[in-house]
Amino acid sequence: MNESRPASMNSFWMPFTNNRDFKANPRLLVSAEGVYYKDVDGNPILDGTAGLWCVPCGHAQPKIVAAVREMIGQLDFAPTFQMGHPAAFDLAEKLMEYSNHRFGHVFYTNSGSEAVDTALKIALAYHKARGEASRTRLIGRERAYHGVGFGGISVGGIAGNRKPYGVMLPGVDHLPHTHNPEKNAFTRGEPEHGMNLADELERIVALHDASTIAAVIVEPVAGSTGVLVPPKGYLKRLRELCTKHGILLIFDEVITGFGRLTTPFASDYFDVEPDMMTTAKGLTNGVIPMGAVFSKKFIHDAFMEAPPGIELFHGYTYSGHPVACAASLATLEVFREQNILDNAKAIQPYWEDAVHALKGLPHVIDIRTIGLVAGIELAPIAGKPGARAYAAFKKMFADGVLIRVTGDIIALSPPLTFEKKHIDELFGKLTTVLKTLE
Ligand SMILES: Cc1ncc(COP(=O)(O)O)c(C=O)c1O
Question: Which residues line ligand 1 (CB under 6 A)?
């Protein structure tokens, strides 16, 4: 194992990174186990973000590591175009089981971005297959993150991710975001105010007509733009309106899937049925890149009624990669055998109390929690948006804790195997750091 610094950091063009700043002061992780990373100097770094929201079962989980090792030795690659391998089929059945058979089929991708683009394409092709080819519009939401494909940034709602890339997909509209700190600050779980924002879909329908709209895509809880929890009743209302107008509802569960809200999916937590669900990250415990689109049976059925031949002209070389399937099968076993969701449920009240105890500390203007997620919003430094939270991120790393920041919001999402002592360590250090920020 290479635990030394790289000879040069010049050639790696790092994603979503201030490359010049990072390379001047790098943070290098060299190993991980349980809920800790180790940095290149040998310091333990508590993982307050489950990597990038993607390691629910903790790092180096022995069962998952063993499954990956075994599959690489047995079947390193197999195509899934016009052929297959057992693990891809076994996993699909297990995923249906894990979702309580609320879905009928699963389409594999390699990332959340690909899952989003796949779901959008399935939505368009579904309406076409049913003879409603005029349904081509896609509706996203402001402040949404749906990855970085052209579909995802088109329905996404983050200006920085959109503005350099031209006009993107045509025929996209956006619902307003639901963030309302004036009315909902310091809420535990779903905030009271804002359900009526779902009715904005009626306005969009009135403008374009339902017969032109294919799908609405939302994150049940928006993660990347700072943990925006849906107002009470909002998602149910959105579901009602989509049903009323024959519009498919897609939940982007790339971060909320696999236990983040203490339930298998956010759709379980909110008791709202989407027609499709995009997932990735926790699907393999982050070990091997993989995404998956869960689809209701009626969508798949519409394709199977077409004349004989390939039903969906879409797929990736690595769709259902055997090693990813092995990692995911093992992840599902770990979820069951180690009662990962029960642990998350048991620790959640302690987590929530610890986060809300930060209220009153310098700069903290809002705190939002749901499941094992927290958003802590800081007042920005005048003229330097994001600088205060970025300083917190750097100081926390130097103090041995990995947090994530987006703008001036600290977003926390630990592995679901977190214990009270880890929560105490995280918030003990965060309290100190918040007191030292400019
Ligand atoms: C809700 C959501 N959708 C899609 C994505 C994109 O996933 P990926 O980075 O695997 O492409 C993310 C990533 O954070 C996400 O949070």
Answer: 111-113, 116, 145-147, 219, 223-224, 252, 254-255, 280
- Give residue limits of the domains in the chain: 19-57+339-436, 65-337
Structure tokens at 391: 């300083």
Q: Which two tokens stand for residue 359?
A: 């209220």
- Give the residue, by CA position, lying nearest to ligand 1 atom 3: 146
Task: Give me ligand 1 centre to Cα 113, in Å.
Answer: 6
Place of tokens 């987006």: 406
pTM above 0.90, yes or no: yes
Task: State the distance between the two ends of the chain, measured CA to CA, in whole angstroms.
Answer: 39
Closest C-alpha among 55, 30, 33 to residue 415: 55
Q: Phi and psi dihedrals of 375, rounded to 5?
A: -120, 125
Helix (H, G, I), strand (E, B) or coil at 350: helix
The DSSP call for residue 381 is: B
- The answer to whether the beta carbons of residues 64 and 334 sit under 8 Å apart is yes
Question: Phi/psi zone of residue 44: left (φ > 0), alpha (ψ -120 to 50 degrees), beta?
Answer: beta
Tokens of 246: 């024959």
Q: 84 CA to middle of ligand 1, Å? A: 27
Range 19-57+339-436 classified under CATH 3.40.47.10: no
What residue owns the CA closest to ligand 1's atom 13? Answer: 147
The full DSSP string for 211-253 is GGEEEEEE-SSB-TTT-BPPPTTHHHHHHHHHHHHT-EEEEE-
The tens place of each residue's pLDDT in the chain, 438 residues long, gives 567 899 999 999 999 999 999 999 999 999 999 999 999 999 999 999 999 999 999 999 999 999 999 999 999 999 999 999 999 999 999 999 999 999 999 999 999 999 999 999 999 999 999 999 999 999 999 999 999 999 999 999 999 999 999 999 999 999 999 999 999 999 999 999 999 999 999 999 999 999 999 999 999 999 999 999 999 999 999 999 999 999 999 999 999 999 999 999 999 999 999 999 999 999 999 999 999 999 999 999 999 999 999 999 999 999 999 999 999 999 999 999 999 999 999 999 999 999 999 999 999 999 999 999 999 999 999 999 999 999 999 999 999 999 999 999 999 999 999 999 999 999 999 999 999 998
Contact at 8 Å (CB) between 122 and 312?
A: yes
* Domain spanning 65-337, CATH class: alpha beta
Residues 6 or more apart whose CB falls under 8 angstroms from that of 126 comprise 214, 248, 299, 302, 303
